[in-house]
Amino acid sequence: MVTVNEDLAKRSKFAYNDIEEDDAIASKIEKTGKEVIKLNRGDPPQYIKTPDYIIDAYVDALRSYKTGYVDMTGIKELREAVSDRYARSYKAKVSPENVIVTQGVSEALAFLNNVLINDRDQAILFAPYYPQYMPLLQMYGGSPIIEKYSEKLNWNLDIDSLGRSLKRMAKPQLRKVKYMMITNPNNPTGTVLKRDYLEDIVDLANEYGLFLVSDEIYDEIVYNGAKFTSVSEVANGVPHMILNGASKVYDSTGFRIGFMIIPGTDKFSSKVSAKLKDYATVRLSVNTPAQYAIAAAITNKKEHEKAIKNMVKEISDRVNYAYNLLKKNEYLDIVKPNGSFYIFPKIKLDLLKIKDDNDFVVKLLKDKNLQVTRGSGFGGDGHFRIVSLPTKSILKESVDRINDFCEENKKK
Ligand SMILES: Cc1ncc(COP(=O)(O)O)c(C=O)c1O
Fold first, then answer.
1. DSSP category for residue 229
2. Which positions are tagged coiled coil (predicted)?
3. Distance, CA 87 to ligand 1 centroid (Å)?
């Protein structure tokens, strides 16, 4: 019998997600009949129902048999709705032609790297970062240059440090840097970046010729007095791309709808936009009824305003509740979040008989049946991430377990 060539593609080694390892431990515990509290998935519909007006729009699309392939870059109604939303909220002039609908921001990341990254190219990421940025960059042959959000600046950008790093880079290296990615509001830190930091980063992008990518998937989930600024408001002609989607703000992670927005009319932006559209033709179109549902969701401002107001109130109540309980724990240091729905405590490892954040997360899961996410997976070693979406009683129980765990593992 002829044997097949068993070599997998080299790039396949980059396909991983830390979550799987902890999920395997959690399922083992669950098989023994114990219940595991899971604070590890940023999945709002699990906790706050997708609004009925969006469900109705989805059902209407199905009932009208909108079930075939559609425009590969996204239905016109949705691209127009996204363009209007950015004009309305951020005074950004975006032609619907420069909006591309993807299967979530996750697919947008694949598009981005597909179009820009050659072997040995680089991208600037800021740690802590959303983990999925990394495998997709690496799969396409790229590597990251890691800059840092500053915990001392409440996880805002450390512009001076970025300026120094860019200054140190020689021209040939800079030419290999294909984009610089920020996440605002942030996952995992829950920080909304201040406008002046964004203006500074735009200036640096301009000075060093860097394409700026801003992941704004949590743009309306902002509270505790913070004000969100879109990069499109401050870009001032600097070529940039906005990533956004329906998953979080429209409470519909399972619909798998994301958007890439390339507002610029400069030569490079036009080239990127055209090539992204070519990529869309390779994978055909995105889920059709979901696109109609999200077009209706964005267009129905009255219903959306009601839904997002309730959602942000619920989320901020839950985040602040968990934050206020956690900050009493003397083994943790926490920056108060003001956006998204995550809390990212630093573990005071010098006070505990715990080696690092991996050790903390795995032991917490095994000993207390509480699943959180390791900070090192976000490039934030020594931290862990909590998804603060469950009810207050679950959050209280979770913090009790963390407190007990820390007490049981404190250095004598
Ligand atoms: C910052 C950030 N970007 C992108 C995504 C992926 O979202 P989508 O559901 O649109 O693929 C997430 C999901 O948690 C996220 O936190």
1. -
2. none
3. 23
